Structures are given as structure tokens and as C-alpha cells.
Amino acid sequence: MTLVRTVAIAAAFAFACASAAPLERPIPPEQLRNGSTFTSEANRKLQADDFENPGMLWVERGAKLWSEPAGKSGKSCASCHDEAGKSLKGAAAHYPRVDPPSARLVNLSDRINLCRERHQQALPYALESDELLAMSAFVTNQSRGVPMNVTIDAHNARDFERGRSRFYRRMGQMNLSCAHCHDRNWDRTLLFEKISQGQPTGFPTYRQEWQTLGSLQRRLRACYSGLRAQMPPYGARELVELELFLAWRANGLPIEAPGVRR
Predict the structure, then answer these.
(1) Active-site residue (options: 77, 178, 181, 223)
(2) What would the pLDDT profile of 182-219 be if each residue is shown by its tens digit?
(3) What was the pLDDT predicted at 9?
(4) What's the pTM?
């Protein structure tokens, strides 16, 4: 066993021991709020109506992709998982999580692409493509109403700590951190909009400014741009680590994807 691996395991073990007591969240559980509560009444109604919510177009497309055979195996997602409403209910509430074969932290989009490569022998969908967004929206929608439930343990402790550190790190020309907006100033008005708590439970989300559905990573990259900071590419490890911290921070909030925002 290499020295680096030994140190990594020791650090993870130390974190696991230190985490025997519950981690304290910056926003008390009784004050947690989904992103939709910070939007206009018109947006909330649009999100709540499955016939009007534009994000449901991607869910429908995802349902079609779910049943289509793909790759050299000739299998569809349904070939392994059968009825998504039963097999995937609650699954999205546990992501990002560590993929055991690769020991790598993955988000839900990564998981979909890993299934395509390993079980369907198909090429992965391009990041932020309509196909990947549709499958992500379909899978996440199976967990709508299920509370987020991400566990931090020895397997993902280092990823979590890096994500947490990044959330509180000042960056860019604005010299601000995520926490300046989403921990300290949520519910205050900025540019005619309420600042949300930055909870990830509505993603993928249809944003009217985008005129399309987008992933949480797209929204995070927009925040980097707003801070005038160097924007990580889609799929960057630092974005997935930040997603993990945000997911843990939202534990207990119900999933509401696909969300609708201005």
C-alpha cells in the first residue's frame, strides 16, 4: 500500500470518527426552503402544473429514451430497471455518491452515462445535451416529493470537505463566496429578485433566461461567471464536489424537479 493511499484512508477514518456527532448545517433545518419559495407566484404555478411546466417536455423525452434499446447490448434502461416509477423512486435523493467500481464521486448525470457505457455498451451522452438532460429530468422526476438524503461517510468525506471548503472560499474579481449570498443574505432582494438559499432540489431546471432546461452545473457555472471567477468546465471534479455539499445542505427538503425559474 502506498504512503499516499495510507494517508488518504487515515484522513477518511479520522473524518468518519469526527463525524460521529451530526454535522452542523449553516441554515437550521426548520428554516430550509426550496428554491421555488423564492420565485414569483406565477412561476410557482407554472412549476406545479405538469401540463404547463416546460420542463415536463424533457421528462417525456426521457421516458421515451428509457424504453429505447441502445448500444451493442441492445438493452434499454427498462431492460435492467423495469418500471422507473418503482425502481428509481427515491434514487435521486442520494446523489452525488461514490461509484464503487471506480471509487469516484459521481452525480446523477454521470451515473446515467456509466450505465450506458457499462451495461448498454453505448457511447455516453454529451454533457448538457438534450438527451442527458432529458434522462436526468426523467430519473429525478421519479423522486419528486422525496426528501434529499445524502450521507457523508468515509467514502465521500474528502470530496465533501473539498466541496464545503469551496462553498466558503472567496473567489473571482468580486471576492465573494457562495455563502455570502446563500447563507448570509437569502430572502433579501438583489436585482429585483429574492436571493435563494441555493438549494439544488429543483434541478434540472427550466430557466426562462435560458429558454431551455439546464443542469445544476450550468447554474453553478453562471454563479462563477457572476463572481468574475474562472469557470470550471462541465464535469469538473470541483463542480461535483460542490454538488455533494449542496445536496447534503439540502437534506430533508423534497425534490421538486423539474423546477421553473426566471
Answers:
(1) 223
(2) 999 999 998 888 999 999 999 999 999 999 999 999 99
(3) 44
(4) 0.90
- Distances in Å between the alpha carbon of 27 and those of 15, 128, 186, 192, 199? 22, 30, 10, 23, 11
- Whether 147 and 89 have beta carbons less than 8 Å apart is answered as no
Residue 6: what pLDDT?
Answer: 46
**Which SS3 state, helix, strand or coil, does residue 97 take?**
strand
User: Looking up cell 434499454, which residue turns up?
Assistant: 76
- pLDDT above 70 for 46: yes
Angle, in degrees to the nearest 10, between helices 130-141 and 108-118: 110
pLDDT of residue 22: 60
Helix (H, G, I), strand (E, B) or coil at 155: coil
Cα 30 → chain centroid:
22
Pairwise CA distance, residues 243 & 235, whole Å? 11
Instruction: State which amino acid sits at residue 122.
Output: A
User: CA-CA distance, 27 to 109, in Å (whole number)?
Assistant: 27
Q: If we measure between CA atoms, which residue out of 108, 262, 109 comes closest to residue 196? A: 262
Q: With both helix axes pointing from N to C terminus, report the angle between 157-168 and 3-18 in degrees, rounded to the nearest 10.
A: 70
Active site residue 115: no
CB-neighbour burial class of residue 216 (10 A; exposed 0-12, middle 13-18, buried 19+): buried
pLDDT in tens, 223-243: 999 999 999 999 999 999 999
Alpha-carbon span 43 to 165, nearest angstrom: 33
pLDDT on residue 26? 83
What does the alpha-carbon distance between residue 49 and residue 43 come to, in Å, rounded to a whole number? 10
